[in-house]
Design goal:
This protein has helices at residues 2-19, 24-39, 43-63, 66-69, 71-92, 95-106. The chain is mostly helical. The chain has one domain. It is elongated.
């Protein structure tokens, strides 16, 4: 009886560990949805963002074995992949979204427009 319970407990633990691994497509879908909600994207833009994130996740899974062996090369390649993805994401935004995205990334806040005072004659 103890062996059966121990086996069932070990099976459940191993099942939860295995279930946590997500495919690159699932990760890309999650990231694309989050980005699309934040920036209120249209369907065409959502498709472009998903394609960018999917390519990014596939490239990151290709270089994942380097993390354990050659960390410097891994970091450099990862940085290049992330930078390329960000540039491609900017292209999928329209000009107003791009302006807001650039100001957000640079740390600048939106300028508040001051009302012009009307001159009275």
């Amino acid at each position: 009886m103890k062996k059966i319970l121990l086996f069932a407990f070990a099976f459940l633990i191993s099942l939860t560990i295995v279930a946590q691994d997500k495919t690159p497509a699932e990760k890309a879908h999650i990231k694309a949805n989050r980005f699309a909600k934040e920036w209120e994207l249209e369907h065409r833009q959502r498709d472009n963002v998903y394609a960018v994130y999917l390519a990014q996740e596939q490239q990151l899974t290709e270089i994942a074995p380097l993390e354990a062996t050659d960390t410097d090369t891994y970091r450099k390649r990862r940085k290049v992949i992330l930078r390329e993805a960000e540039q491609k994401l900017m292209l999928s935004l329209d000009k107003y979204q791009r302006r807001d995205y650039e100001s957000l990334k640079s740390g600048k806040k939106k300028k508040k427009r001051r009302k012009r005072k009307r001159r009275r004659w």
